[in-house]
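Quick one, T. Sequence first:
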Amino acid sequence: MKIIDMHSHFLPESWENLEQRFGTTGWPWMRHTEPGKAMLMRGSEDFRPVYEACWNPAIRLEEMDRHGIDIQVMSATPILFAYDRPAQQAAECAKIFNDAALEICAHDNQRLKALCQVPLQDVDLACAEVTRAMDSGHIGVQIGNHVGAKNLDDEGLVTFLQHCASVDAAVLVHPWDMMAQERMPKYMLPWLVSMPAETQLSILSLILSGAFERLPESLRICFAHGGGSFPYLLGRIDNAWQHRDIVREDCPQKPSSYVNRFYVDSAVFDPDALELLVKVMGEDNILLGSDYPFPLGEQQIGKLVREQPVLSEAAKHKILSSNTIDFFNLAK
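Structure tokens:
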């Protein structure tokens, strides 16, 4: 059985000075602090300490071997999205980082796969880039869960998702630009509170708006971090749909009936949470995801699933391998 980690991140070791290229400040860059370590910067501010597994494929493969991971799917760190920049600049950034991802994967194309990023603030440019990237060797696309005030039910974003289905690009939705950060200045609270809420918001945006009625069933879409708050609050959502017409006005079916339309990853870090996740989503709709190589990721990749006592061996096989093979069409 191949073990596949479908949620991991990369950063190039360095890239072009984007402040100089575009003439504006606040762009991300890498400040290398010592051999094998760096600080990801946003303009003049420290954003996150990182280490060479982000950019060094030899280290990544060595650590994959240590964890028993056969294949890893990489996607950009969301700070690279540039959704708040002019669309053409975001399109240029997408090409820079998408091409860099393929350069890392070229070290071992059988074990390292990549998802592209797109300038999601411009639907035409986003569709063009996902098409280019899929033709270049990416196996799907990672998008943020919103663009400014636009959630995933925005007509332009629905059009983009329809295009992804048409070019056979699987979609990973990753939370970013978290809500209410001004109220959460300490303790990584945006990552601990807002990230799960952002993911739930993106799922409910598709369900309650009726967007899933307009999206083809061939669309393969996965939400990071176990679907955020969604699986654990689904009873509340169904209850609201049943008893308040303003909740169900655009949603023809009970919200829980849509769980077969999307996937989530397994990054929930607790066996009881994983057990509930399987009960809610079903063993066919969960993919192994670690959030490697960041501190909030699973530190022993796959251990939670491998050691889950209530899962059958067949269910473990699906989550660790076969679901992801089907999701990304890796068997073709």
